[in-house]
Structures are given as C-alpha cells and as structure tokens.
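Example 356.
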Amino acid sequence: MPTFTVDTGAQQYPVLVERGALARLGAFIPPKRGVVFVVSEEGIWRMHGAAVEQALAGRPWRLILFPGGEENKRLAQIEAMAEQMVEGGGDRSSLVIAFGGGVVNDLGGFLAAVFMRGVPVIQAPTTLLAQVDAGVGGKTGANLRAGKNLVGAFHQPLAVITDPGVLATLPEREYRAGLFEVIKHGIIRSEPLFRLMQQRREAVLAREPDVVEQMVAESVRIKCEVVSQDEKESGLRRILNFGHTVGHAIEAETGYSRFLHGEAVGLGMLAALRLSELAGRIPAPLREEMAAVVRAYGPFPSTDGLTVDGLLARLRKDKKAIQGAVHWVLATGIGSTEVTADIAEDLVRHAVASIL
Ligand SMILES: NC(=O)c1ccc[n+]([C@@H]2O[C@H](COP(=O)([O-])OP(=O)(O)OC[C@H]3O[C@@H](n4cnc5c(N)ncnc54)[C@H](O)[C@@H]3O)[C@@H](O)[C@H]2O)c1
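Predicted structure in complex with nicotinamide-adenine-dinucleotide:
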C-alpha cells in the first residue's frame, strides 16, 4: 500500500496507509527522542492498544487516557494531560502519539504543539473521518463554550500512520458519517473516487477491505496534495470545506448533539450542490446525479426545528467567514470546484430551504 507525502515547503512528512501499519510505528520515532506519550481514549485502547504497545516495545513510553467525546475536547484536558506528561518524565525531548478519532488527533496534536512550547507528534487516526481528514494536515485544537475549534494551532506531525484495519470495529453510524467526507473528496477532486462511491455502495457499506483501502488511500492522496499547496487555508485548502459551511451551521443550530459531523457535512453538500446549480455552475441532471450518491449513504437525522433564518444567521457568524463574507465552495463538475464570495443571499436561501 502507498505512502503519501505532505510537503509544505517548511516541512515534509509521510502518510502511510496500510493494513497493519501500526506495527511500523516505532520506525517513525527518531532514535534520540525521550519518553513517548501515547494519548488515547479507553475504549479505543482496549480494542487496538496491543498493536501500539508491541510497536513501542523496548522504548520508554507512557499511556495518557482521557474520556474522549466532543464535550471533552477542552483546554482543561490539555492542562491535565500536560501535568501527566511532566509527572511521567516528559521534557523537550518527548514525543506524543495521538491514537484515536478526530477528537484525539485534534487534542493530542494541540497538546504536542504547546507542551514545552512544542514537541513532535505522530498522528495515528482510528476513525474513517480521522483517517481521511482530521489526521492529515496539521490542524489541532480544542473547543470553547462559544464554539468548536476556537483555540488551536497548526502543528504538522512527524508522520501519519493510518491502519484501515482498525475501522472494522467502528460503530455503523460513525463509519457512515466518515463516508460523506470520502464522497466530498470525490466531488471536489476525484471522479474515480466519486464513481467508486456511486458504483460500489454495497461493498463500501460491507467494509470490503480492498474498497475501504481504496477510499482511504485516494482521500489521503487528495488531502496531502491540497495541504501541500496551501497549509494555512489561504487559497486551495478552502475547497476541503465543500458542504462544511452549511454543515457547521446545522451542527451549531442543533447544539452539536443531533448530527455527527460527517452527517451534517452530507446535508451541507446537498445544499452546496443545489447552490451550484442555482448559481449556474452545474446543470440540474448532474446535480441530481451527485446528490443521489450523497443520499445513498444516509439516512440523515431529522431536520425538525431547523429554519432557513436560523441557519442563515449561523452562516454569517461562521469563523471561516472573512469580514462577514462567506466563501462558498461550488461544484463545477465531478472532481472540480470554484470558490466564490459572490453569491446572492436569495440563492443561498433557496439552497438551504431545499434540505429542510
Ligand atoms: N484537524 C482537522 O483537520 C479536522 C478535520 C475534521 C474533523 N476534525 C475534528 O474531528 C472530530 C471528530 O472526529 P471523529 O468523527 O473521529 O470523532 P471521535 O474522535 O469522537 O470518534 C468517534 C467515536 O468513535 C470511537 N472510535 C474511534 N476509533 C474507533 C475504532 N477504531 N473502533 C471503534 N470505535 C472507535 C471513539 O471512541 C468515539 O466514540 C471533531 O472534533 C472535529 O472537529 C478535525
């Protein structure tokens, strides 16, 4: 299986996608590093920790478990874990391995970014969403009461070790939620990936190993390519937000409890596709073809109680709006996009109304 590379100019690192890759974790730790701290959640550790333990045999390492869940992606956990690092002999020579889903990747990465003003991190993502998205690209962070990911840092990892084998234990709903990010990668940048999701639905849902590996590898390839060209999201990286603008608004309006992130992105993509059609970027039949693939991986949680006005108010407050202007990522075909802030509000209203 392939190894991809992120090359931001300042930093270069490998992203390994391979069944059994966790066994090779030790090879990516520089020999002179001191104590290794593995940050994870108890449930994940119970299921898959043995592979990490074996890979670290013979090295000084400690395990730091935290409760996990979006509600624990908070600065208080960073402080508690940093204290545990000091107690465990951590210093500037330490290294963090973030072993878990996106919450662990974000928080473990942030811990590494701030511990002793920065120690290296190796990301080992264990959910589909984290393997195709959160684990790659160096965005780390925590939530504030006021909103998600409002504190954080860019901290590129030394390596990303992706083992698609661990996805076998993922709960069905979490797996499906991750599939929407895979479809997103297809729509924005890869017709072959889009066709895979369109034509191999049953194999995808049955988690057939070869199909899972193709989905993860092609998504990782795209994410590496985009991040390499635009690490800090000043240009190309914005295309990764396809479906996320409305998705974030849905998550916020439902108190982050009804929708999983991927599910909200799925609905957000339906709105973005409608907007692409209304703005004259794609014809109706093509919009329908793409939307059918998104819907095929549902169902979505209920949209009861959501209103166009409520969602529009959230859109204006989105942290990615720049001086109040939302940058829309529109589909211009299968595998191509355009980013524009020049979209009339009544089109947005129609597009949002179409998913409620
Ligand atoms: N940094 C980025 O670029 C980026 C990108 C996208 C999302 N994110 C962040 O990622 C987070 C969401 O990530 P997520 O969807 O992975 O959620 P998550 O980390 O909460 O994991 C979802 C659930 O799956 C469980 N789990 C993890 N791996 C498992 C496995 N192999 N088998 C069985 N269960 C397993 C977890 O314990 C958890 O209950 C959000 O906080 C989001 O902000 C970050």
